[in-house]
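S2.1 Query sequence (Phage shock protein A (PspA) family protein)
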Amino acid sequence: MSNSNGWGLTARLISKHFGVLGDRVSEAIANFDPETATEADRDRLADTLRATAQKLASARASFDKEHTDVVNLRNLIANDEKATETLGERLAAGKISEATINMFCDELEANKARLPQEIQEEADAQQYMDELQKIVDALSKQLADFDSAAKKAMQALATAKAQKDLQSLRAERQSQLAGLSGLQGNSSALEALTRRAQTVSNEAAGMRIVADIGQRPIDQAAEIDAIRKSVSQADTAGESALERLKRLSGKSAV
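Output C-alpha cells follow.
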C-alpha cells in the first residue's frame, strides 16, 4: 500500500472493475489525518470503507468462482488425458468411431488451450481481491486511529473542564472569604458593637471597684466581731455556774 507502484496497480484494477471507486479510496487514504480529521471526515472514510468492503466481498466471490473453474478444468483435462489410452484401444478394436475420437480430441485440445486463460483470470481475481483486502485493512486502521484520537481528545476535554470547574470553585470560595474578611475589617456596625462591649466591660469593672471599697468596712467589722466572740468564748470557757452568776452580776469572785 505504501509503494506507489503497488497503489498504481491497485488503482488500475479498481478503476477497471468499479470506475470512480479507485479515486475515492486513494483520496480518502491520502487526505485522512486522524489527529485533525473532523467527524464528517470520519463519516466519509467509514462510507468509503463500507463501499470497499462490499467490493471485497464481491471480489472474493469472483475469485472463488475463477478458482473453482480452474480446478474443475484441470480435473477434466487430467481425466480426459487418462482416457486417451482407453479410447485408443477401443478405436483399434472398432468399438468407437473416429468421428467420436476426433470430437473428444477437439474438446481436450480446446480445454488445454483455455486453461492458461482461466489460470490468468484466477490470478487477476486473486490479485484484485488481495489489493482490496489491503485497502480495507488500511481504512480500518485509520478509523481505529481516528476513534483512538477522538477518545483521547474527549478525555483531555473532560480533564480541562474539570480543572476549569475546580478553578471557578476556588475563585468563588476566595471571593466569599474576601467578603467575610472585608466585613470583619470594615463593618461600622461591628466596630460600634465592639466599642459598646468595651464600654460596658469598663463600667462593670468600675462598679466592681466601688463595690469592693464598700464591702471592705463590712468585712473588717465582721472580722473584729468574730475576734471578740472568740475571745469572749475563750474567757468563759469552763466557768462554773457560781462564777457565771458573779460575772453577770458584775461582782468579781472572792
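Confidence is low (pLDDT under 50) at residues 1-7. The CA atoms of residues 196 and 202 lie 10 Å apart.
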